[in-house]
Design goal:
Chain lengths: 370, 638
């Protein structure tokens, strides 16, 4: 009742308060391109477009709510979110549902959800919180402890197995550690160690994961199995040419040659229909989005805010790069959606909450300066 | 001192952080740059290569439609089979104008207005069709004409397909059922059951009868072939092949020869007949007249034939045997007699005097015989069909006792036969009236209404299958079996059988003595009573009961021909029977619409059917059909 008497202008002002216009415009532009591609990919199931519209509305609301939360308040969620996330990952390992051979889903009442998805934000929160607390006395062992905090959920996700999410969670955790200032020497040493570790790691991979890596090197080895995705999506991208086949005219997409064309492979549909020019537009939009995020991070007042902003921004980058790289055949096929374009509510929610965190940090950049 | 050090320290940290942000930015630009390079490589340098790959080198998954299972009668006569033929199909998305294409084609081969009308209908009915047939069952000559010039017609192809064929045309049409193109509703049902993938490549689906009830068994499992195709859609080579698995054969309990004899006995009259094997529930014959030629439907019925079938006042598509409801008339009396004995309301010895009417309040209920039957005991009441006896009996029993007993015999409830569209009928009771009507004065049960219930009139309305089931239950001394038209399912390759065991739906607690009494009285009907003339010189013993049901009102939508309307005002003729008396192997119910007295129309049909079933006697003018057993070589994709 109180609200009803407020002037409209004040309500609008309240709504846009804390929303970063630049970020919002970039994200919505990406979403619109996503709808164009999704509409084309959904000629046989038009309901998907509507579903995605609903997901987008929910995600926008979540972004708005997150943007209203000050970074200091956000910090308080770090430990509980991380602990709950790890507990849920353990629960998945024990009682999760198996879908397509992987145990990723947890039943909660009537719906299922993937705890690994929430780790994408809970892990950087936790690490940023930790570094923030130890800010003045950072030692090498702090980085070691951070590595343990990163390794626990990562191991649980790799075990599910869900290589795509594991790669993302690992990358986001790494970004926090990187921005926290781990020395270049240590970093170089770790990189060397990683290369050496690849060999035993290879032995730990599941058969289908190995197949994906091998088929990346030579997709024609297995044209109907693991290589099929790459061959068909590469054909889609390549046959798009400079200007594309035109919206709704992609033959690869419409003749059902592209598997998972709504979700992880929506870039193939987009690229086939909009060509190199469309890809350039998309890359520029992503670059602007990431650039904006990095600027926000550079201006952030506290270590927590800096680390969080940097990590979320590079998460967007990782999503975009890994997805487009896999669809165009230079990275292995892992289940990573194209940010703000792929069909699916869960990923959208994570991305928009991430954007909300960026907005909150941008809004509070001066408040804590003293 | 400490403060400045910290400040300097944090400033250095900030610088360090911003340096790393810069590194991240550069890394992003490098990564995106490499993506751009990759896109340039694929979309500009290699574009021609990938364009031709997209256009020329497609892998198409071609479904292989399984052979539909056969429908076979109990003695091995094939009543539904497949034959292969050619169709000429138009791919609507690949032609500029369907109309123009049809006009062009009609210069080459004959395309009738019926073909065009049917094509239009299919367009409306089918969701997202890839191709639709403009001509089916091409002659060899037509096929050759088209095959010589396939390139002249873009978006037109001839396809080899299996068609359903029903060698007996309209015989048993309501049991066998017809096929139709998968329409939007069917598609939605398949999707909700999660079997739509198995129907890729299948155009037709069972719409009624056994074709519908046993659709899943008959259909089989669709196979797939991965084919590399060129831009014109021609297959270059097959990459993998998963064979289709033929559908199962469905073996009916029906005896097709008996069915034919029964249908023939109806002549041009409308009506229904159900013959059941007591003690198993196996349906031996299930007639609904008039029938319709099942072959009309196999390649999509044309609109004109469909309209004719749908709008005919004879309602040939209606399965009267399970969906038609009729007052049972006097065929109700044996069941009333049994109820009276079981409930102790009458003994075999007690008699009444039948003056030809029964007075209740200020109403006088008339007997069909003026002057009445004189002194009548229970046995005679059935043999001569005394109405007065049953007016009094109904009054003495009361509606609740009648309804309670008849419910045990399955009257007024679906029998659960394995066919779709069964009606429940009406077993009148105060509760039923309460539910059926709205106004309070209509909802009340008046004692006067009970009187006519006793002779099978009033609100009584049952399906022929319910009457046959009740008769079979009495014949089997109270064992009620769920009626079935399918006896077993057979794997066509391994000959492995899955039988449906007789399913006892209830054991009605009847005293043997009273059942025997009623059976003897019904035997008396055929020996010396109302059925005696129809069963004169029969070579076996049988029990029966005639019935005549008043047609109260004309149904809606039947207001044409005056002579016809008058004919449709006539009473329905009914007969129920079982034989032989001592060890019944068949029980039946017959309804002849507007056939007049039960003894005149329905009883002779029963006699014909029993003659054939029990002693193999064929009616005059009807040849024994040559049984056509399963055809070899009818299994292409096996």
């Amino acid at each position: 009742m109180e609200l009803a008497r407020l002037p409209v202008q004040r309500i609008v002002l309240r709504l846009v308060e804390g929303i970063d216009g630049t970020l919002l415009v970039l994200i919505l532009s990406l979403s619109m391109l996503g709808f164009a591609a999704l509409f084309s990919a959904s000629y046989d199931s038009p309901g998907r477009v509507l579903n995605q519209l609903v997901s987008l509305s929910l995600a926008l609301a979540a972004m708005w709510v997150t943007a209203q939360i000050a970074p200091q308040t956000l910090m308080r969620f770090a430990v509980p979110a991380y602990v709950v996330g790890v507990v849920l990952l353990v629960a998945v390992a024990l009682f999760g549902d198996v879908v397509n051979g992987a145990r990723r889903w947890l039943h909660v009442g009537v719906t299922r959800f993937q705890p690994s998805e929430m780790m994408k934000l809970a892990l950087p929160l936790m690490l940023a919180w930790y570094f923030h607390r130890r800010e003045s006395t950072l030692r090498l062992r702090d980085f070691a402890l951070a590595a343990v905090l990163l390794a626990v959920p990562l191991a649980l996700i790799v075990r599910q197995p869900d290589l795509g999410t594991a790669a993302l969670v690992g990358a986001v955790g790494f970004y926090v550690i990187f921005f926290a200032g781990i020395s270049w020497k240590v970093l170089g040493g770790l990189a060397g160690l990683f290369v050496v570790a690849l060999f035993p790691l290879w032995g730990m991979l599941h058969d289908y994961q190995r197949k994906r890596v091998l088929t990346l090197l030579d997709p024609t080895q297995d044209p109907l199995g693991a290589g099929y995705h790459i061959i068909q999506s590469t054909i889609a991208v390549g046959s798009g040419g400079i200007s594309g086949k035109g919206w709704l005219n992609g033959t690869q997409a419409h003749l059902e040659f592209i598997p998972e064309r709504h979700t992880d492979f929506i870039f193939a549909v987009y690229s086939e229909e909009f060509g190199l020019i469309g890809n350039l537009v998309l890359l520029v939009l992503y670059a602007l989005l990431i650039g904006r995020g990095l600027v926000i991070a550079a201006n952030a007042p506290t270590l927590f805010a800096r680390l969080m902003a940097g990590a979320v921004t590079l998460m967007f980058f990782t999503y975009a790069f890994v997805n487009m790289g896999m669809v165009s055949g230079i990275l292995p096929v892992v289940g990573v959606p194209l940010p703000f374009l792929s069909y699916g509510g869960t990923a959208l929610l994570t991305l928009f909450i991430g954007a909300g965190i960026l907005m909150s940090i941008q809004r509070h950049r001066k408040l804590v300066q003293t | 001192m400490m403060g400045t050090a910290e400040l300097r320290n944090s400033e250095r940290e900030l610088q360090q952080f911003q340096l790393r942000i810069g590194v991240a930015g550069i890394a992003m630009l490098v990564a995106f740059g490499s993506l751009l390079g990759r896109f340039f490589f694929l979309q500009v340098l290699q574009h021609d290569h990938y364009r031709s790959k997209a256009e020329d080198n497609r892998i198409s998954i071609v479904p292989i439609t399984p052979n539909r299972g056969l429908i076979i009668d109990r003695s091995g006569v094939v009543v539904a089979r497949n034959y292969s033929g050619y169709t000429l199909e138009i791919f609507p998305r690949r032609v500029r104008s369907v109309e123009a294409t049809i006009d062009e084609l009609s210069e080459l081969i004959e395309i009738t207005p019926r073909d065009r009308a049917r094509y239009k209908r299919l367009t409306v009915e089918t969701r997202n069709p890839e191709s639709l047939p403009i001509r089916t069952r091409l002659s060899d000559e037509d096929y050759a004409k088209f095959a010589a010039l396939p390139f002249r017609y873009e978006g037109v192809k001839n396809k080899a397909r299996l068609f359903r064929q029903y060698p007996y045309g309209d015989v048993g049409s309501h049991v066998i059922g017809y096929m139709g193109r998968i329409n939007k509703d069917d598609q939605a049902a398949l999707e909700s059951e999660g079997v739509d993938a198995n129907y890729r490549g299948t155009d037709y689906i069972g719409k009624s009868g056994v074709e519908a009830t046993y659709e899943r068994e008959l259909h089989g499992t669709t196979g797939f072939e991965q084919v590399e195709i060129d831009a014109a859609g021609r297959g270059i080579r097959t990459l993998s092949h998963t064979a289709a698995v033929s559908g199962h054969n469905v073996v009916l309990t029906l005896d097709m020869r008996l069915q034919r004899v029964a249908e023939n006995a109806f002549g041009q009259r409308r009506g229904a007949l159900v013959a059941i094997e007591p003690g198993t529930g196996a349906v031996l014959a299930l007639v609904s007249k008039p029938g319709f030629d099942l072959n009309l439907f196999v390649d999509g019925i044309d609109p004109q034939a469909w309209t004719e079938l749908n709008n005919s006042p004879d309602r040939p598509l209606n399965n009267r045997a399970i969906a038609g409801v009729y007052p049972p008339g006097s065929t109700f009396k044996p069941f009333m007699a049994l109820a009276a004995l079981e409930l102790g309301k009458r003994t075999p010895r007690s008699t009444i005097n039948d003056p030809g009417y029964f007075v209740f309040g200020d109403r006088r209920f008339r007997d069909s015989k003026p002057g009445g039957h004189g002194v009548v005991d229970l046995h005679k009441s059935i043999v001569v069909s005394s109405d007065t006896y049953y007016y009094m009996l109904a009054n003495d029993m009361g509606i609740d006792a009648i309804a309670g007993f008849m419910k045990q015999l399955g009257l007024g409830q679906p029998t659960g036969i394995d066919l779709q569209g069964e009606a429940a009928g009406v077993l009148p009771s105060p509760e039923w009236k309460m539910k059926r009507f709205r106004r309070p004065e209509q909802q009340r049960w008046y004692p006067g209404e009970t009187i006519s219930i006793g002779i099978g009139q009033g609100y009584n309305a049952y399906t022929p299958i319910q009457l046959a089931q009740a008769m079979a239950t009495v014949a089997a001394n109270g064992a009620m079996y769920r009626p079935r038209v399918v006896g077993h399912i057979e794997n066509p390759r391994t000959r492995e059988r899955r039988s449906f065991e007789p399913e006892l739906s209830s054991q009605v607690p009847l005293k043997r003595e009273w059942v025997e009494f009623v059976k003897r009285a019904m035997a008396g009907v055929n020996k010396e009573g109302t059925g005696a003339r129809a069963f004169a010189r029969a070579e076996y013993t049988s029990g029966g009961k005639t019935g005549t049901a008043q047609v109260i009102a004309i149904k809606q939508g039947e207001k044409y021909d005056e002579a016809k309307v008058a004919e449709r005002h006539r009473d329905h003729s009914l007969f129920i029977a079982f034989a032989p008396v001592d060890n019944p192997i068949i029980a039946l119910a017959v309804v002849v619409e507007n056939g007049g007295f039960g003894a005149r129309a329905a009883a002779p049909i029963s006699r014909t059917v029993l003659d054939y079933y029990l002693v193999g006697k064929l009616p005059q003018g009807l040849q024994e059909p040559t049984p056509e057993h399963e055809v070899e070589g009818d299994r292409e994709s096996d």
